[in-house]
Amino acid sequence: MTANESVPPSPRGAALLADPLLNKGTAFTPDERTAHGLEGLPPPAVESLDEQARRAHAAFLGYDKPLNRHIYLRQLQDTNEALFHRVVTEHLEEMLPVVYTPTVGDACRRFSEIYRRPRGLFLSYEDRHRFREILRNRPHRDVDVIVVTDGQRILGLGDQGVGGMGIPIGKLSLYTAIGGIHPARTLPILLDAGTDNEDLLADPHYLGRRERRVTGAAYDELGEALVSAVEAELPGTLLQWEDFATAHARPILTRYRDRLLTFNDDIQGTAAVALGALLTAITVAGTRLTDQRIVVLGAGSAAVGVADMIRTAMTDEGLSPDDARARFWFVDVDGLLTASRDGLSEEQRVYARGDEQESYGLAEVVRRVEPTVLIGLSTAHGAFTEEIVRQMASACERPVIFPLSNPTSHAEADPADLARWTDGRVLVATGSPSPPLEVDGHEVPVAQANNVYVFPAIGLAVTAARATRVTVRMMVAAARAVGRCAARSATDGSRPAPLLPPLRDMRAAAREIALAAAVAAGEDGAAPRAGEEDLRAAVARAQWSPRYDEPSR
Ligand SMILES: NC(=O)c1ccc[n+]([C@@H]2O[C@H](COP(=O)([O-])OP(=O)(O)OC[C@H]3O[C@@H](n4cnc5c(N)ncnc54)[C@H](O)[C@@H]3O)[C@@H](O)[C@H]2O)c1
Ligand SMILES: O=C(O)C[C@H](O)C(=O)O
Ligand SMILES: [Mn+2]
Questions:
Q1: Where would you tag: which of 255, 264, 410, 419 has the fewest CB atoms within 10 A of its CB?
Q2: Which position among 24, 63, 72, 171 bears the catalytic label?
Q3: Which ranges of the chain have pLDDT less than 70?
Q4: Is the CB of 153 under 6 A from ligand 1?
Q5: Which cofactor does it need (predicted)?
Q6: Residues within 5 Å of ion ligand 3 by Cβ?
Q7: Which domains are seen in the chain, by residue range?
Q8: Global ipTM
Q9: What pLDDT shows up at residue 442?
Q10: For position 441, what pLDDT does the model report?
């Protein structure tokens, strides 16, 4: 800071209580209350953070509906960040479905109705020439992680316009609660390109641009305006792309992955968690990755991203690229992807079958292929029917079935049905949280194969290792680390086994996954070289635990 720039005065009194990063509420001590002009403002009781957290948890439980619990927690976050994160961290299993998927989907749908206070930045197409200036209005100077969406493909719910802001906010809450990125160093961004959702366009309360989405060159200009503003104003910040429609997701990633520190969570984060869960599943099943026959329902950016990473792992294990490709059958809304189909993108064409002429539907593909693995990223609720699952299970001892579409209302199957239809032989993971299964009188948790196992760890990795790029090898290393963490908690004999580490151990798992990605970053020249023990220490240091401290602002 130069002599001419003045340090902004620390807020006092009511202004201090209104700053969620400095506010301690009832935890301000009598001395602090005197020193900062707070006497008489909070009620007389002086509480510790733990006491506040217990009271907040009781208040949370006082709401019955998940959306009301979400609103309560968001309001707590906007009032007192340390307290919010303490409560979420301590009750991760209970609160993840409320802060995040599936309830965040409702919060996005009803964004304009439940809106209370601004958070992050809204960048509109009209302002594209002034993004750098607007970025300077960000609430905090130094940012480690940005999550940006344009709201066009929110979970499986389609175009939510500015309502999509719920997703970057939710994801960044978990960057903090799990990855330990300081809340002051996170920035959610909503890129407002308009909306094609007729209900929103007609809704008098809609809070976004009431215009149709810009497309083509204008859309590309919008993305470029964001990237150049971030490069100029926040160089070195991790930029995570989230819930972009498939038509934009991959082109954006291809355009920017070698230019700045960036990744697409739906393509790469999803892939890493799916591969991690698959590696555990085949360990439990006692089979080899290179022997799997994999049917994928859905051929959007998430599905192709998952197959691409599994394919990389297969070639790492000795399969030729062509043989690895031949292990996959993709089925989308028009049926099997075949070489004779028109309109496939370059990434999809990789998986188009040359040996089949007809675009059979899923049931027929499962009958012909006898898959060992069935992955759903289709948004098609209930698409893994009893007939299909029984057919698969008749030809495979331990069918691996991952209905990964979110939220729950779009999942391809319910794990309890899968367990019934396979006599408990299924190895299952879902995208949204699922209640535990009853197997032989025991409760068996169902793994949540959601990119939440990966993105907070990637944030922690790049921050600790001072990485400048997110490389493919970093993501594959993260996936393998997810698998290792899970293998430790998977029971070998029990049916079905949990395929991912328990949510309560996620902060520890995030450190291990981050370490693996950080080591890979060094090997790839994407971060300064450092020894593993130094990196382990750097990761541990970088993981902030929720407490009252002096945030860097
Ligand atoms: N578990 C996770 O971590 C995770 C991560 C990313 C995405 N997802 C979920 O994956 C889903 C898809 O995401 P995307 O970005 O790839 O979406 P997308 O809209 O780009 O792709 C959907 C694909 O499914 C196909 N499809 C649609 N209806 C179908 C049907 N009835 N039968 C067969 N195929 C059908 C479409 O043809 C398309 O190929 C979403 O529900 C999203 O929430 C989950
Ligand atoms: O947001 C999630 O829960 C996972 C994933 O990013 C999705 O788009 O479904
Ligand atoms: Mn997503």
A1: 255
A2: 171
A3: 1-8, 490-497, 550-553
A4: yes
A5: Mn(2+)
A6: 243, 266
A7: 1-47 (1.20.1370.30), 103-260 (3.40.50.10380), 268-541 (3.40.50.720)
A8: 0.99
A9: 84
A10: 83
